Structure formats: structure tokens, C-alpha cells
Queue: 2 jobs
Job 1
Amino acid sequence: MDCIFCKIVRGEIPSNKVYENKNFFAFLDIGPVNRGHTLIIPKKHYKNLLEMPEEELKGYMEAIQKVSKAILQGVNADGISINMSNEPAAGQVVMHAHFHIIPRLKNDGLKLWPQSRYKEGEAEEIKNKITNSLE
Ligand code: 5GP
Ligand code: ZN
């Protein structure tokens, strides 16, 4: 498949591999937020988390935890942020599922996103829309 991350898994594009097992592959992000910023991907091509079959998810989370612990210790970080963008509207640029595992340092100055407040009654309305959509 003509996908940059599939090519990385196949070794057709070089990467700094951090970890791999039968189903997952982790490598340094080419543009790190902090040193040690790692991407962890399923070896099979899925567009993003929303398209992954349930049977892949347990192994994915186990691999994420394993790599997160190694990053924390390996680069002597103070914490770990884990992020995934699903769909371009959420900032997904590479259309092969990937979690970002980002080592965090005290006072690294990174801010996530600005927050807002719900208006009166709005939170209940939104909560109902979500719970009514659960499959
Ligand atoms: P997204 O914005 O889709 O969540 O993140 C894509 C990430 O892939 C970016 O952080 C970008 O730096 C990284 N990336 C894109 N192309 C390559 C590549 O060829 N090699 C590596 N190691 N990382 C890449
Ligand atoms: Zn792919």
C-alpha cells in the first residue's frame, strides 16, 4: 500500500525503531515535540482508531504502555502525554492509525487546548446526544 507508515513498517523508508512485536511498531517521530516523541502504529493499515477492530485494541494498549514506560525511563522524563488525532478535522495528517507518545518534562511549557464552559442545560443535552449514539 502506498502509505508512508506502511512503508516504514516494511523498512522501505528508514526510521528509528523503538519497539516492534507481531502486530505493532513504534518509531521516533521525525518532528519531535520533546526528545523521545514516539509514534506507535498497528502493522496492518487502518485509517485510525475509529476503524480498528476490537480484537486489535487490547494489544495496542499493552504496547502503548510498554513503550511509554521505556520512554519515561529512557529519556528520564517526568510524565507522558498520549495523543491521537482521528480524521483531518482533528489534525490527522498521516492516514494510518498512530498514537503519539510524548515525554513530558516539568516546565516544558507545552499547553494542550483551550477550554470553555457549558451554558445552563447544555451539558445534559450534549450528554444525551452522545449516550443515545452509543452502539
Ligand atoms: P498526525 O498529525 O497525523 O497526528 O501526525 C503525523 C506525525 O507523523 C507527525 O508528527 C510527523 O512529524 C510524523 N511523520 C510524518 N512523516 C514521517 C516520516 O517519514 N517519518 C517519521 N519518523 N515521522 C513522520
Ligand atoms: Zn498504512
Job 2
Amino acid sequence: MLNIVIFGAPGSGKGTQSELIIKEFGLEHISTGDLLRVEIKNKTELGKIAGQYIDKGQLLPDDLIIDILANVLEEKKNAKGIIFDGYPRTIPQAEALKKMLNKHNKDVNVMLNLEVEEEELINRLIARGLIQGRSDDNRETIQSRLDVYHSQTTPLVEYYTKEGKHHAIKGTGSIESIFEQIKTILAKHVG
Ligand code: ADP
């Protein structure tokens, strides 16, 4: 089983690269952001709660998102591998994921960190807001999301470095050139 954490700031291209990885390696995708947006669209109780955090650019509480993740993971336990996109975003989330996978004698195998400069991230997110109309892709919420990323999410770089799983990827340039870097790393983990 190949379990990948795709990591990076908002706008770093996690979703785009996830799609390419899934096609190439036949993995399953868990995107906590996509999952929450479906709940919001369907106006569920969870959607109502999630919307309040997302629109402020804040993270959902760890215990809530860990529960959600545990449920989706249970559904996908027979997958060839999973790409985790937008999860974990905090150290407690990473520790919870490790515990869940370890229970089945599995673990995260690779963490791919898409590195993009802040100015480029802001430009990409503003452009995406204009095209896709995501409620959190506006200037004020973008800044909160980046602040949250720096304070709560970047400690995961050290966490996965200590685990020997961190791989830095240059997240600028063409989509294909970024994917080439990813393929080179993943080739060492498949087969
Ligand atoms: P982006 O990486 O562009 O911010 P996502 O779609 O991954 O987009 O996440 C959108 C929002 O959903 C986040 O700002 C946060 O409010 C919520 N969210 C998604 N994943 C998590 C998570 N693992 N923990 C807490 N909140 C989350």
C-alpha cells in the first residue's frame, strides 16, 4: 500500500497534482476540503458547522476532522493506496492518522511538500476565486488561511522530516514539470 500525504499552502496545487498521481498510480483520493464542500452544498449539519470555519479561513477543530477522516478511511481500507490531500493540517491530526494506519500495519510512506512563494499563492487563489467562485478565495480569507498555514500546519514539515518521509517539490513551473518531480520520487516507492 502506498500512502501519500500531499502537502502545501493553500493554492500550492495539491488538488491538481493529486488528480495526476491518482491517474498514474491508481490510488484513492481523500480531500478533506472537497468532502466538507459537499457537506456545505448538501446543507447538512456538518456542512453548517464547517462553513463557519471555512468562511473565516480557520481550521475545523481537530477532534471533528479526525472523526471524519476515520470514517472515510474505514471505507477505503482495501485501497491500493491513498493520497491524503488537505489532511493532516496539524500535529495532532498527523499523530491520529499514524495511529489509524498503524492499526492495520500501515503508515504514511511519502510526504510531498509543494513549495510555492507567498506572492504566487495569493495570485493563484485570487484567480481561482474569480473562476470557481469558492467562498474562501477572497483577499481577506486568503490571508487568514496563509496565516493559519504558517502557524498550525508548517510544523508538519519537521514532523515528517523526522520520520524520514519529507520530500520538497518545487511547486512552480508547468503542471507537467511539477508532476515529473513527483513521479521520480514515487517511482522509488512502487513496484
Ligand atoms: P486550501 O488548501 O486551498 O485551503 P482545502 O480545500 O484543503 O483548501 O480546505 C479548505 C478549508 O477546509 C480549510 O481552510 C479549512 O477550513 C477546512 N479544512 C480542510 N481540511 C481540513 C483539516 N484537515 N483540518 C481542519 N480544517 C480543514
